[in-house]
Amino acid sequence: MSKETEKVKPDWVKIKPAELSKIILALHKEGNSPAKIGLILRDQHGIPRAKLLGKKITAFLKEEKQTIETQVPQIEKSKANLERHIAKNKHDYTALKTLHKKLWDLNRAKKQLEA
Fold first, then answer.
1. Model-level pTM greater than 0.70?
2. Which of 13, 32, 79, 86 has its CA 20 to 30 A from that of 7?
3. Domain ranges of the chain
């Protein structure tokens, strides 16, 4: 897909950018993450991608001066649970692999916060 086709609004999407921005802000105020907002827009409102505004949901929320909660606390909680499980079950190598993946996710999320 070229960049030109990405920015073109499909003919079957009848929602205006002002309405879309109101929906995004309302969903954010309900406590939904940007990823969840995208899924809700796709499934319930028939919007193929929220980038119809010209920017991603997180960029739109930052522009509107809304606070965005990160995944870091959730990943840290999952990491702690895995560490407890591995302490009890030393030969659970699948859980150890999952712990390594959580650490990668945690480092990636922290880098995104810094940027």
1. no
2. 32
3. 3-63, 72-114
